[in-house]
Amino acid sequence: MDPLPNPAPLASKLQNTLVRYHSIGDGEWRVAKKTKDATVWRKPSEEFSGYLYKAQGVVEDVTNRVVDHIRPGPYRLDWDSLMTSMDIMETFEENCCVMRYTTAGQLWNIIAPREFVDFSYTTSYEDGLLTCGISLDYGEVRPNFVRGFNHPCGWFCVPLKDSPGHSLLTGYIQTELRGMLPQSAVDTAMSSTLTNFYSDLRKALKM
């Protein structure tokens, strides 16, 4: 088990990586799934043998409230149907922490429940916010869970210029689920999980 990293350089590197993903040209992405709530694209990841996914959709609420529902905190467990538990293991500053969370089984339990330990960082970006994370090799793996790994991932949330009460939410996700899984099952699950994320979030913000 690794010791906890120094948060400041890790946060800076993570932010720079996400900003770089955010500048990747449209031509490099291929549409993976499209619903009324969101569009999901993907491209081969530079970090591992799977895909980097990009998801985007408009959410009807102000930026701060949207990000409060996404980042580690009391809201997330209430509405995210995939997340089954979450606890904050370490807090560095109010915008920077290490959290452990578990996810439900997916695809009729072909994908068994997973556990993740992530470093999470939230910062300002343009007129909005960026909340981002990366997995750490930290803490004992609990029984009955496979430990997954999130390569650099995050959510950009900025107000729509013509409609400041709405936010454009763009996510970059590259999750290595680990364990013995057919890649096609992982790819199906990822696209569906991301579109469901938007529809669940929209419902939560209306409550």
UniProtKB/TrEMBL annotation:
- Coiled-coil annotated residue ranges, if any: none
**What's a BP term from Gene Ontology annotated to this protein?**
cholesterol transport involved in cholesterol storage
Instruction: Using the record's annotation, list all stretches that form the START domain.
Output: 10-207
Its GO CC terms are: cytosol; endoplasmic reticulum
Task: Report the superkingdom from the record.
Answer: Eukaryota
Q: List the molecular function annotations (GO) for this entry.
A: cholesterol binding; cholesterol transfer activity
Q: What's the protein here called?
A: STAR4 protein
